[in-house]
Amino acid sequence: MKTLIVIKEQNHAWVRNAFPGIHPLLLTLCNKPYIEYLIDFAILSRSEEIRIMSDGSLGEVEAYCMNGSRWGVELTYSNIRTTDDITTILQKNSRFCRDNRTMVINGFVFVDYDKESQYDSIINTMPDGVIASAENEGCLILRGQERNPDAAPAPSPPINLESIDSIESYYRISLDILKNKSSQFVLPGYGNEPECFIGRNVVISKSAEIEKPVSIGNNVQILSGTHIGPDAIVGSNVIIDKNSTVTESIVLDNTYIGEELDITGKTAFQNMLSDPGTQAVLSMEDPHLLRSTQNNGTLSALLRQITHAITALTIIILLMLPFLLIAPLLMVQGKWKKRLTDYHGAGDKKVISIATGTIPNQGVTGKLASIFSLNRYPLLFRVIKGDLSLIGNLPAAVSDNSSAPDQDNMTHYYRPAVFSYAEAENWPVIGSDAAIVERYYMVHSNPLKDIGMTMKALINLPHKNTPK
Amino acid sequence: MTFHIDTSTGSNIGIAVLQGRLDVTNSAALLNAFPEWLQQTTSIIFDCSGLNFLDSSGLGAFVRCLRQTLDQNGDLRLAALASNVAMIFELTKAKQLFSIHPNLQDAIDSFSS
After folding, report:
1. Any idea what DSSP says for residue B94?
2. Residue A341 included in any domain
3. Structurally, how many domains does chain B consist of?
4. How far away is chain A from the Cα of B20, in angstroms, using its nearest Cα?
5. Would you call B23 and A281 a contact, using CB atoms and an 8 Å cutoff?
């Protein structure tokens, strides 16, 4: 018995839009890649060789499934043309099929099988042709000569097909597997109880509640106060932050769910939230609500650092004369008050000591110093040194726990800087509004934009400091 | 962003029509304009039929406007939220804070019922 799995790009084009970056054949249903369901069914049908065929790229699938030794079958891969029909495909693969009974799974369909059933005997008694078909698209076809001519006609096959043609059908099939059919399939994860599948390296806070049926992938953090389930599928490399609820929902791999959120009846993938019922899709721009858990490349961080350093150097040169003229006068007058404080550093810099200066906005020298923000001038050298960014978050003092960056997962969005995005946008620099503004720009700014925002901060700061 | 007073029900109901995006780049404009509207009436509706994107700063602006309205013993109601905009209210549980109506007329009628 051999199996041909024929899936064309047009069958699953919606997956690329809904879940960008995921190969459709590797899209997980209940934390198990779709292609594995088909391989399992082929094995239940006593297939020894399986060929996966597509008119698109199969590189990722081949890298995942390899030669099939994991399942004890021989897996091969082949490209087809978009215009090839089943007859043409069978002709082109006649050497693969030879005289063997061949099953063709055509289309991006979910095969609703039961691992306890004996499909080889069923299939061997069935006539050639389409033995099952999905409502919209996709079918199961048999070809070959292994049929036992003396056997009684087979009953209707207990094989149902369902097209996975939208987020709605994907959501419905996934939750159906979890709620009603988990015993029919081999699902990943460990669990002492039925309807509860938990992967490796899952950290669940003591105050979190897990209500089955639930499926949780690998490397998942479920923080305090969260409520997962019932009917929740949480993928791998997911972080669910404090006091959030995930019910009747699917959280796909590499997704961060923020604090105090309620995900009910939704599909969350990285920064995209979908409602299967209304087909509405929301692309979140707030990283503290929903985002990918995968880090951006370090190359962009390096480019940012270089840009900030060059801009800081430019500002140092431009403001050197005012600083050298005004700062000594302020120090002699006793108006320049310096204080050394410990602040949280970015990344692996745990604590940095920064000497901050305050200048009263009074008198000619004080007002001039405010216009040029000269109290920030010494900090520009720390930008060149790499301790601070030119623009980002205002440094959070170590002694002030309320302003400490969230160590759990937001540290890579904390960038202590000379100027803050909130200052540039003229928002109050403390409070939750400032945090939202700063997080927005942390995600959406780029080195060029940072230069513009720095200029904006330099312009806005004197207006802030001017008494009204 | 436009604002006008509707007197069809016999009382002054302020209707602010929001268009396009409400995010960190323009939510401050809403916050700056709102106190003037509140001086004209404390019954205000945000007509969101033209609003196609809202982020957390926009939502924060909505909440602040609501708070200011409640301080004046009034109410701020929302009308005609698009599906994707409504999702952010569900996600953040802000749906519990606002009276949300499927269309503008329903929101206007709710002030008289």
Report:
1. G
2. yes
3. 1
4. 15
5. no
C-beta separation of A173 from A162 below 8 A: yes
Contact A260 B84 (CB under 8 A): no
Q: Please tell me which of the candidates B23, B83, B91 has its beta carbon nearest to residue A289.
A: B91
Is A428 in the B-facing interface, judged by CB distances under 8 Å? no
Q: Residue B50's domain spans which residues?
A: 2-106
pLDDT of residue A149: 58
Tell me the nearest-neighbour CA distance from A279 into chain B, angstroms. 9
pLDDT band at A468; cut points 50, 70, 90: very low
Domain match, A388 and A448 both: yes
Q: Cβ–Cβ of A286/B56 closer than 8 Å?
A: yes
Mean pLDDT for the stretch of residues A260-271: 94
**Any CB–CB contact under 8 A between A280 and chain B?**
yes
Domain shared by A265 and A304, yes or no: no
Identify from A285, A288, A291 which residue to disrupt to test chain B contact, counting B C-beta atoms within 10 A and taking the largest count.
A285
Contact B60 A432 (CB under 8 A): yes
Report which listed range, A287-296, A315-324, A449-458, is most confident. Answer: A315-324
B21-67 tens-digit pLDDT? 998 888 888 999 999 999 999 999 999 999 999 988 899 999 999 99
Closest by alpha carbon to A220, among A75, A409, A372?
Answer: A409
Contact yes or no for A397/A342 (Cβ under 8 A): yes
Which residues of chain B make contact with A245, given a CB cutoff of 8 A? Answer: none
Subunit contact A284:B55, Cβ cutoff 8 A: yes
Is the Cβ pair B60, A433 closer than 8 Å?
A: yes
Q: Which amino acid, A120?
A: D
Is residue A191 included in any domain, yes or no? no
Q: Do the chains contact at B90 and A264, CB–CB below 8 Å?
A: yes
Cα diameter, chain A: 110
In a shared domain, residues A255 and A306: no
Q: Which domain holds residue A429?
A: 298-465
Asked if residue A154 and residue A36 are part of one domain, the reply reads yes
Residue A281 sits in the same domain as residue A354: no
Q: Kindly list the residues from chain B whose CB atom is less than 8 angstroms away from the CB atom of residue A427.
A: 28
Per the model's pLDDT, the better-predicted residue between A24 and A445 turns out to be A24
Task: Give me the interface pTM, i.e. the ipTM.
Answer: 0.83
Domain total of chain A:
3
Which residues from B are below 8 Å from A when comparing CB atoms?
A: 23-24, 28, 55-57, 60, 82-84, 86-88, 90-93
Q: CATH no. for residue B23? A: 3.30.750.24
Give residue A182's identity as a one-letter amino acid code.
S
- From B55's Cα to the closest Cα of chain A, the distance in A is 7
Cβ neighbours for A77, distance < 8 A, ≥ 6 positions apart: A51, A52, A53, A58, A61, A62
Global pTM reads: 0.74
- Give the pLDDT confidence of A430-456 residue by residue, as tens digits: 666 676 777 777 766 788 888 988 888
Which residue, A137, A115, A128, A125, is CA-closest to A87? A128
**Does the pLDDT value for residue A414 go beyond 70?**
yes
Helix, strand, coil percentages (3-state) for chain A, rounded to 5, are 35, 25, 40
Secondary structure class of A76 (helix, strand, coil): strand
Q: What's the one-letter identity of residue A415?
A: R
| CATH number of residue A121's parent domain | 3.90.550.10
